[in-house]
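Below is a filled-in request sheet from our internal design queue. Each sheet records the structural input a requester submitted and the sequence that came back. We keep these sheets so that new team members can see what a complete request looks like end to end.

REQUESTER: design group, bay 2
PRIORITY: normal
MODE: inverse folding
CHAIN LENGTH: 180
BACKBONE (tokenized):
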């Protein structure tokens, strides 16, 4: 006769049965860890430049995307099922990125300027990198993260700095004074 504790032990064991062996556990830890590391690399670059989405945000986005893809794979999803999962990740993270985009007046002018597009694009790409890591495409994830890091760090060195409009320059300079 089974006592209650044996039933509880069997229930707990069956709940933690999604990783069957050490090889599978290693695969899960490697994929999630790589996603966190690569997301952290991009997030670190954003954080040292004072951007709103930094290290922790990028790490969580990458790990979340990797986990969602891993779950779909472990559940035995077909290629079409996993494609739908990826579509959901892409759309969902798009909404997260949209929250980082701000549109406002430029120094009180009637024209508006948009801020946060690079951060939004970075969050979206970080999710894609995490999804690649979660799908077992580690080399692709590492290459993409390296390219993205290059875009974020090297392109600003070579891109021309934006110049203020002549009207904006005049509006931002202090008015002349009559004092000697």
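RETURNED SEQUENCE:
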């Amino acid at each position: 006769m089974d006592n209650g504790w044996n039933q509880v032990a069997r229930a707990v064991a069956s709940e933690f049965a999604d990783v069957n062996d050490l090889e599978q556990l290693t695969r899960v830890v490697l994929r999630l860890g790589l996603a966190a590391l690569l997301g952290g690399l991009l997030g670190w670059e954003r954080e040292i430049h004072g951007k709103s989405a930094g290290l922790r945000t990028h790490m969580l986005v990458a790990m979340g995307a990797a986990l969602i893809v891993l779950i779909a794979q472990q559940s035995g999803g077909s290629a079409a099922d996993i494609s739908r999962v990826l579509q959901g990740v892409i759309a969902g993270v798009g909404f997260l990125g949209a929250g980082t985009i701000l549109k406002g007046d430029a120094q009180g002018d009637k024209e508006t300027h948009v801020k946060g597009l690079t951060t939004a694009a970075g969050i979206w790409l970080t999710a894609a990198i995490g999804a690649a890591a979660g799908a077992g495409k580690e080399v692709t994830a590492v290459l993409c993260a390296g390219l993205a890091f290059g875009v974020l760090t090297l392109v600003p060195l070579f891109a021309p700095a934006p110049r203020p409009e002549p009207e904006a320059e005049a509006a931002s300079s202090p008015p002349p004074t009559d004092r000697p």
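SHEET NOTES:
- The first helix runs from residue 4 to 15.
- The helical segments are 4-15, 22-48, 55-74, 79-98, 117-134, 138-158, 166-172.
FILED BY: M.R.
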